[in-house]
Amino acid sequence: xxxxxxxxxxxxxxxxxxxxxxxxxxxxxxxxxxxxxxxxxxxxxxxxxxxxxxxxxxxxxxxx
Length: 64
Hints:
Strand order of the largest sheet: 1-2
Number of strands: 2
Strand content: 15-25%
Shape: flat
C-alpha cells in the first residue's frame, strides 16, 4: 500500500494484492502491484478481485 502513491498522483490507478509469504522464518507477506490506465479504476479492481478469488492468499496470515 505504501508504494502506490506515485501511480495515483500520475492519475494511474494502482492497488497491492497479496500473493503469499516468504519461505523462511519469520514469514513476511508478499504482494504485487496492479497498475492501470489513467482513470480506469474499474479494470484494476476487476483484475484484483479476479486474482483474489482464484488464490487463497488474502485469507492467510503470516506466522509470528
